[in-house]
Amino acid sequence: MNVGDRVRLLTGREQGIITRMLSDELVEVAIDNDFTIPVLRREVVVVAADEQKAFGTMSQGPVAPRDVAKAAKAAKSNKAAQPAMSQPTAPAAGSAQQPTPPKATVPQPAPKGLYLALSHQSPELLSVHVINNTDTDVLFTYGEERREQYRGLTSDKLGPKAVSAALGHFHLKDFDQWPAVVVQLLPHQVNGTTAYELITKRTQFRAGSFYTSRREAPVLKQEAYLFQLDEKPAAPVVIAPEKLAETLKAQLTGNAPAKPAAVAPAPEPAKALVPPPHEVDLHLEALQPEGAQDLSNTAILKLQIEAFEDTLSRALATNMHEIVFIHGSGSGTLRKEIHKLLSRNKDIKFFEDSRKEKFGYGATLVRLK
Fold it and tell me: How far, in whole angstroms, is CA 203 from its chain's centroid?
């Protein structure tokens, strides 16, 4: 029983995919509707491959052995009868010649390279794999990064034209919460004459590019969301023959100079978030004193809305209790747009016209939760 196996619950009719081994006696199973539950190992059984071929991968409930044998026998007899049924018949005399069907187009072979592939285990559950579609062995590590915190999960070796086991599982419903995937790869050949540099690839999934990346994955031979990890192939490290002997001798005698440890660049310090003033003037003269005469009415409204949204987000982030937006009365267009946006924001307690004796209907007071 391994991660990625399809199993059936013995206490019910549900089937699912094993996504994690929680302990020696407990596994995590994603049911076909993507509801993840912990289950004792003794309460699940792996769905046999013969059963899947006979009844399909979505069969429910226990299947009697005689039914499996019956379905297998029927499939075998159908296969034997198929050639006889598919023999072409000669056209009758005088009949029009049937057009020759077009030849099937041969799919282009996938380009060589190293890939990250996410394939469907169920309609909503994806498994993550590394694909080595090259002629060399590859050592790799796999990890995930959340909130700039990296966590290494596994490492392994892939032979030529090979695919890794499932390295992780992601739910499509949680797409916005997926971590960044970090893969390090080092191609090598036993008794080879070329050394390669390490490839490090960080992949942060974006909706715009993720859903357009679906195509047939090499080696895996099924559709997957595919991302190439070696857009820039690993550069060979060339060592002169005379220096190679000196380097090996120094390493064997222990006189080789120590290599400096790789130091990750220090992250840039986060900028302090400054709360906005209690009253914010959205008039064009206050936002853009120069060049205002060259803007159209649409551009002016866009500039004012962007300033309003930025100010409101900073007010919420710095836990302000209230803020006043001065938008003027005029035609009322800006006031309507601001009120529309405020009415859709769940972080707003309420809003109302502010200080009518001073601004009339030209300012709005916003109370924040």
Answer: 8
Place of tokens 């081994």: 21
Ramachandran quadrant class, 179 (left: phi over 0; alpha: psi -120 to 50; beta: rest): beta
pLDDT digits (tens, 9 = 90+) for 207-240: 767 878 888 999 988 999 999 998 765 555 555 5
Which residue, among 233, 232, 235, has the nearest Cα to 196 in the 3D structure? 235
- Check if the beta carbon of residue 44 is closer than 8 Å to that of residue 8: yes
Long-range contacts of 33-42 (CB under 8 A, 24+ apart): 33/124, 34/122, 34/123, 34/124, 34/125, 34/171, 34/173, 36/171, 39/9, 41/1
* CA separation for the pair 319, 368 (Å, rounded): 8
Q: Can you tell me the distance from the alpha carbon of 114 to that of 96, in angstroms, rounded to the nearest whole number?
A: 52
> What are φ and ψ of residue 223, in 5° steps?
-70, 140
**In which region does residue 218 sit, left (phi positive, over 0), alpha (psi from -120 to 50) or beta (all else)?**
beta
Rounded Cα distance between 311 and 368, Å, is: 13
d(CA 350, CA 333): 20
Residue 348 CA to its chain's centroid (Å): 33
Of 39, 64, 38, give the one whose Cα is nearest residue 51.
64
Distances (CA, A) of 346 to 190, 277, 364: 61, 22, 17
Torsion, CA 40, CA 41, CA 44, CA 50, rounded to 10: 170
Closest residue by Cα to residue 171 from 28, 2, 44? 28
Length of the chain: 369
179-196 pLDDT tens trace: 999 999 999 888 888 888
| 171 close to 165: Cβ distance less than 8 angstroms | no
H or E stretch at 11: none
d(CA 5, CA 15): 11
Token representation of residue 83: 């050639």
